[in-house]
Amino acid sequence: MKKEKITTIIMLIILLVIEAISVFRMIGGHQPIAATAHTLIGVAFLLCGIYALKVANKPDNNPMDIRASFVYPMIMANLFMLIVIAIHDMDHMRQAMEWGYVFTPQLLMVNLIVYIPNTLSFILIAKRKFAGIWASIISGVLIAGAFLKLHLLGATIKVWGPWNRSFFALHVDSLSWWILAFTAIFGVLLSMYSCYILGREVQRRDQLK
Q1: Of the listed ranges 72-81, 131-140, 164-173, 200-209, the one predicted with least confidence
Q2: What's the whole-model pTM score?
Q3: Where would you find the membrane-spanning parts of this chain (predicted)?
Q4: pLDDT in tens, 49-71
């Protein structure tokens, strides 16, 4: 448990470092609104991470709670998903700077939505809530499906600025394609792992009846 907690802290630090790099890149690109948005995202991650670490160590008193042995692995899985999403976001910053695009407040607000599912998932998991498993299952396939749909087929609702067009139309480089592929693959893997945990928990609950 101690090693898992340390690993979780390291992953949280990596996520915060990525957001800090994003902030400085946006400052360097003379995009103060985008820099402010990613500062707020970083602060939110810090506060949510501290809260999750605080509540994750409660004892196994309620048999309906998720088992302690599953808590940190699932927190780490969701944190890794957030790290992948943040890297995907950094790639969009790279593209925007190459194209001379300035992020609009509307796009930044919509973009915040992609961080919510996995953040909610790891908080629920930290609180040992069974709903956290379902949230992880849904968030993994949701992120994978949404990102693939947007970047392969283009946007249905035109709120994504230049990314309303598909990666094919934008002629993005191989790095962007690899990041997209890894994002989608890990989203599916997160859902599969969460389904495995769900099965284990359902089996345990059935044995308690």
Answers
A1: 200-209
A2: 0.95
A3: 7-27, 33-56, 68-87, 107-126, 133-157, 177-199
A4: 999 999 988 776 677 788 888 99
pLDDT (tens digit per residue) in 6-32: 999 999 999 999 999 999 999 999 999
26: closest CA among 104, 108, 97?
Answer: 97
Whether the CB-CB separation of 71 and 142 falls below 8 Å is answered with: no
